[in-house]
Design goal:
Blueprint lengths: L2 H5 L5 E3 L9 H4 L4 H4 E3 L8 E3 L14 E5 L5 E6 L1
Parallel strand pairs: 1-2, 3-4
Antiparallel strand pairs: 4-5
């Protein structure tokens, strides 16, 4: 994923790969899960998902993305390193 692709995740909801998604666009006109959700398997290898109040190491790794999420797992910030 490019930097722009990663930044486009802001506002989407993060789910692990065990979460079952239902595409309900046709039923009620809302956006599909694919447009509003990002699965862990879609992220580059080594991406850290950082929840509120989670302790993380401060080492910089140029090949790592940090995906910050809020209490509802909505992506709030994406940082390289």
């Amino acid at each position: 994923m490019t930097s722009q692709d990663m930044k486009s995740l802001i506002g989407k909801t993060y789910v692990d790969d065990q979460h079952e998604l239902v595409d309900d666009t046709a039923q009620d006109g809302r956006q599909s899960d694919k447009e509003t959700v990002v699965r862990h398997s879609e992220l580059p290898e080594g991406t850290r998902v950082i929840k509120p109040n989670t302790m993380v190491t401060m080492d910089f790794r140029a090949d790592r993305w940090n995906l910050h999420v809020d209490d509802g797992n909505k992506v709030t910030k994406v940082i390289k390193g």
